[in-house]
Amino acid sequence: MEQRKRTVCPCCSLGCGMYIVRKEHKGYAVDYFTGHPVNRGGLCPAGNRLPEVPMRRGRLLYPMVRKNGALTKVSWDGAIKKAAESLKKIIVKEGPGAVGFLCSSFSTNEEAYLLQKLARLLGTHNVDSGALPFQTACNFVLQDSLGFSSMTNPVTAISLARCIIIIGCNFSEEQSVLSRWILDARAAGAKVIVIDYRLNVSSWQADTVIQLKTGSDLALVNGIIASVLKQGLYDSRFILRRTRGFREYSEWMNGFEMADAERATGVSSRLMEEVARTYARAESAAIIWGKGITCQPQGSDTVSALINLALICGQIGKKESGLYPLGGIGNIQGVCDMGMLPEYLPGYRKVENSLKRGEELHALGVCTLQNHRGMTALEMLQAARAGKIKALYIVGQDPAAGFPHRALDKTVLNKLELLVVQDYYAGETMQAAHVVLAGRCWPEKDGTITSDGRRVQWISRAMEPPAETLSDSEIIIQLANELGLGSDFNFSSPEEIFEEIRSIIPFYAGMTAVALKESPGGLCWPYLEVGQPEETSLYLDVFQTFNGLARLQPLPYLPAEPVTPSGEFPYLLLVGKRLRETEDDRVTRTIVEINKGDAVRQGIENNDNVILFTSGGKTTVRAVITSRVPQGVVFIPFYNESLGSSTTGETALCAPVPEFRTVACRVEKAGGH
Amino acid sequence: MRKVIFLDAGRCIGCKACEAACRVARSGPEGITVMPVGERFAVPQACRHCGQSMCLAVCPAGAVYKGEDLSVKIDLIKCIGCQLCIAACPFGVISLDNVTKTVKKCDRCCQRVKEGYLPACVATCPSGALTYEDLDLVTTRKRRKRALSSVLSCGQAGR
Q1: Is residue A662 very low, low, confident or very high in pLDDT (cuts 50, 70, 90)?
Q2: Which of A49, A177, A205 sits opposite B126 (nearest CB)?
Q3: How confident is the model over A377-393, as a mean pLDDT?
């Protein structure tokens, strides 16, 4: 018998539909969901490998507790009891603020909802998700100025745009499926403008490529905006009807000097003017940005500037035009929707908002909750070092391997009085854990997930989990029972949890589990009433702000002084994604791309071993000479090895956290081969 | 009607999803490989299923044959692993399976097609560079595109 289950690929956050097929005597294989609205069956190489994930090395098969220094197998009752008792002890002694909860982007909505509910019933807002440190901050810029922190249109609408600006985003290699819609738009006559520091594969599809100096995105976007204003290309009707603050904004932008922008970016003002003309005059236009923007200290300013650009040109609030932030993985949108954030309750209701708090806390059954925001993941780790956080409960994340400051983390984790790791495989964090709860991985889960474009989809268990593991929701429910909160965790299936979610989050209210399972591509929120016709684009009539208008925000003209290479570290180091050249990860993992001119000057030849020094450490890599990076810049790739592992592993080498994507470094030829 | 796997090289992003899918569908060495061309293009290459197949002509064991769908296939029981077909193939798309010592190449996913699915490489292609369609449709589309572009360029010149 052939079993065919529908699921969604978690390798990026686009939400590509796929099947996992189990054939008798043949094991599991992927199949393609040609009717899916996001990917039309297409899958990137990572998606094709999804069935390998549960079989990866280090799979956890049973719960464990640390006894006499070693992790030993125990029964589920024993493990849960141990975790609950230790948690209770710490909360009684130190208060709930000494406990932190982390979950990953690979959790379903139900799991994230339950985990934050548990944390908040225990009295703490110390919850955070697996988003990269700056990414969430940037997406909240969207929420503040427009209303929702998400894509404004479904990804398929990109194919309707007639001008596409892609900035700081390597979609070809990170979100391969997106290329279909961009290429479709291009085939229909759209102009594609790719803006990046490195000429990655995405620039193959571009009509115009702008290679700018590292860290100068804000100056470039401001330059484009200034050109729009100067040439009178703005959409005054749209500005009048839908925005506020235009007069102040345009006065503020009057002080902007194109010469400064030219100097900062290394891009000619003529080119900026041309981009401004193409974008503003297009019938419809899209702006796509990714980690290149959001993983920078000033990323939120650049995102604000991009929003301003869309607003003054009126290229938003239409079915064909919109803003597309990219760069998440798995269910990151859903995990944030569920309130797995230190400053928001489910449905993005502010923790501090005292007017509404009474009713929300009532819904949550809480009485003694902090009324200030909790700590983010990085703050929790810093607080743990200071001894303020005594216990961490980590679901599906591996901060020891995945967070910047790798060295710092390990000692910090050892300082904790209680570290509970709930995961499906043995990561580095587990080495410090006191209790290990063997959970399940993505293809073994049942529940809902929310992908880019706010698309809520049902994923069903496509692969049989190991016998002694429990689903993450079950583990949290058992733990809650043990902690005496059982009456608030009276669920027996993901469907029941989803019922509660939709009763609490207004923009999920109209979705039912049955409807989600039936529709091939799920449903997009906001979906307020059962059975309403689906509207996938946001802000067609009003923005979701207090008066329905979007505010134009004056921003700094230029980015703060970016990292400058100096005598000791003369190169800038970029970190990003590059497709593997061979099946063996390690081969591609350990390369550095270097410009030909630099290589000649340093006497480096292709495939030479070189040593890369940063202020944080050094590593030996293989040199690849290329014209993709400009002189003075080198590039190393990192991989999302497979699910749930380190996306930022290599940055640990070079990261002081704020300079996340660009670091100064030195390259030396290694002695001998 | 003859359906073919057709490549629109301008759309290929070199992601190698087709290689991964082929490996899954055929549980072995891939029948399609993506060759990067400089730093601007990539071209996936698979068996062209030639009308006058050189591999068929040189095979001493009679292992290479034409299927009903006009695809060139290899009978693995008859194959003696002499690799003459590898030498004869002008595209280099036949390879040796190191385990079985027989040759392997794209069979245009005849099993999947029979069951009503697309060939695996076409189904997975995220950018839509690979398509599986009627040869007539492909040529018509190309002619239409060509006509359109020449008309458009006339229009622009006239302006």
Answers
A1: low
A2: A177
A3: 87
SS (H, E, C) A128-167: ECCCCCCHHHHHHHHHHHCCCCCCCCCHHHHHHCCEEEEE
Which residues of chain A lie closer than 8 angstroms to B11, CB-CB? 179, 183
What is the bridge-based pairing of β-strands A191-196 and A208-211?
parallel
The closest of B44, B48, B41, B25 to B33, measured between CA atoms, is B44
Residue A301 contacts residue A667 (beta carbons within 8 Å): no
CA–CA gap between residue A606 and residue A200 (Å, rounded) = 19
Best of A20, A194, A201 to substitute, by most chain B Cβ atoms within 10 angstroms, is A201
Distance of alpha carbon A70 from alpha carbon A424, whole angstroms: 19
Local confidence pLDDT in tens for the 159 residues of chain B: 578 899 998 899 988 899 989 988 876 667 899 988 877 888 999 999 998 999 999 999 999 999 888 889 999 899 999 999 999 999 999 988 888 888 989 989 988 898 889 999 999 999 999 999 998 998 998 898 888 888 877 655 444
Asked if B20 has any chain A CB less than 8 Å from its own CB, the reply is yes
Average pLDDT of the residues in A243-256: 92
CB contact under 8 A, A579 and B14: yes
Please list every residue in chain B whose beta carbon sits closer than 8 Å to the beta carbon of residue A50: none
Q: A41 to chain B nearest CA, in Å?
A: 6
B138 interface with A at CB cutoff 8 Å:
no
Which of A41, A44, A628 is the closest to B15 by Cβ?
A44
> Is B4 touching A (CB cutoff 8 A)?
no
Q: How many CB pairs under 8 A join A and B?
A: 82
Find the chain A residues whose C-beta atoms sit closer than 8 A to any C-beta of B.
Answer: 29-32, 34, 39-45, 47-49, 172-173, 176-177, 179-180, 183-184, 199, 201, 204-205, 579-580, 626-628
Contacts with A40 from chain B: Cβ below 8 Å: 128
d(CA A2, CA A5) in angstroms, rounded, equals: 10
Rounded CA separation A99/A96 (Å)? 6
User: What local confidence, expressed as pLDDT, does residue A136 receive?
Assistant: 65
- CB contacts under 8 A, B 90-129 vs A, are 117-118, 120, 123-128
Q: How many CB atoms lie within 10 A of CB A662?
A: 22
Q: What is the pLDDT of residues A602-633, one digit of tens each?
A: 888 888 888 887 766 677 788 888 888 888 88
**Backbone angle region of A477, left / alpha / beta, with phi > 0 → left and psi within -120 to 50 → alpha:** alpha
Q: Are strands A609-614 and B72-74 parallel, antiparallel or unpaired?
A: unpaired
In angstroms, the CA A662 to CA A571 distance is: 10
How many angstroms away from the CA of A80 is the closest CA of chain B? 39
Mean pLDDT, rounded, for A406-413: 66
Residues A454-479 pLDDT 10s:
999 999 999 999 999 999 999 999 99
Question: Which of B8, B11, B22 should one mutate to test binding to chain A, selecting the residue with the greatest count of A CBs within 10 A?
Answer: B11
Cβ contacts of A413 within 8 Å, gap of 6 or more: A384, A392, A399, A400, A419, A429, A432
DSSP bridge pairs for A448: A458
Q: Which amino acid is at B79?
A: C
Interchain pair A48, B117: CB under 8 A: no
For residue B138, what are the contacts with CB-CB under 8 A and spacing of at least 6? B4, B6, B131
Q: Report the share of chain A in percent with pLDDT over 90.
A: 42
Q: How do strand A349-350 and strand A391-395 relate by DSSP bridges? A: unpaired
A237–chain B nearest CA distance, Å: 30
Q: Is the pLDDT of residue A361 over 70?
A: no
Q: Per-residue confidence at A320, pLDDT binned at 50, 70, 90?
A: very high
Alpha-carbon distance of A187 to A28, in angstroms, equals 37
ipTM of the complex: 0.88
